[in-house]
Amino acid sequence: MTLATKITVLRLFLVPVFATLAIAYSLKVDWFENAETLRWAALSVFTIAALSDWLDGWLARHCNQGSELGAFLDPIADKALVFSAIIVLTFFQWDADGWAIPIWFVALVIFRDCMILIGIRILYSKHLKVKIKPHWSGKACTVSLFLVIGWVMLKIIPLSPVYPCIVAAFFTLWSTFEYFRQGLAILRKAN
Q1: 117 to each of 112, 146, 154, how far by Cα in Å?
Q2: Is the dihedral of CA 125, 110, 13, 8 positive or negative?
Q3: What average pLDDT does the structure give for the chain?
Q4: Residue closest to 4 by CA, chosen among 49, 54, 44, 42
Q5: Rounded to an integer, what is the distance from CA 141 to the centroid of its chain?
Q6: I need a surface site. Which of 1, 66, 119, 155 has the fewest CB within 10 A?
Q7: Closest CA to 119 of 182, 189, 72, 188
Q8: 81 neighbors 15 (Cβ within 8 angstroms)
Q9: What digits encode the pLDDT tens for the residues 154-170?
Q10: What is the pLDDT of residue 105?
Q11: d(Cα 17, Cα 6) in Å, to the nearest integer?
């Protein structure tokens, strides 16, 4: 197992640690003298896991650390981290007055990923080689998702999480459209 793959596996193990800390903070479980310690611990674990995504990718590309197992586990670890964060931060408020991610946003993110998976499945069922190129809107979608998660967990600006969710929703929809367009182009080229 390559070092890059070990880092990916570590990210998978950090997902339940993050979720546990985040839920404990929301419920104000008194594991520590100060519940804020739980918030900062959850934020730290999430940040380490998010940075590990960059690190394992860099190692795989620049140090010849790529592997089939790593290529398989990396997107699973990424989705597990992001989905756990947005689901926990939706159903467990981080402050009074509804300081949480709105449920419509979670539904939109899950819808996007389901549409991408359905599209890939359709292409595979037609025995087409699926080579979806990353698009800048997909990167913007990921960055805006992390902005939403950070906005809720940091609680620095007293502006409702709905506003960064609207920005992230724009990029989520745009990237969905872009990947749909790429899938149609693959289908047309095959016919």
Answers
A1: 9, 21, 32
A2: positive
A3: 87
A4: 54
A5: 9
A6: 1
A7: 182
A8: yes
A9: 888 888 899 999 999 99
A10: 96
A11: 17
- Report how far apart, in Å, the C-alpha atoms of 138 and of each of 28, 133, 178, 180 are: 35, 10, 8, 12
Q: Under a CB-based contact definition with an 8 Å cutoff, are residues 22 and 87 in contact?
A: no
Residue-wise pLDDT for 37-64, tens only, equals 888 999 999 999 999 988 888 888 888 8
Return the domain boundaries, the chain: 1-92, 97-191
Q: How many CB atoms lie within 10 A of CB 121?
A: 11
Which residues does 87 contact at the CB level (< 8 Å), separation at least 6? 106
Q: How far is CA 80 from CA 16, 76, 87, 106, 160, in A?
A: 9, 6, 10, 13, 25
pTM: 0.83
CA distance 109 to 74: 18
Q: What is the mean pLDDT of residues 89-104?
A: 86
The counts of H helices and E strands in the chain are 6, 0
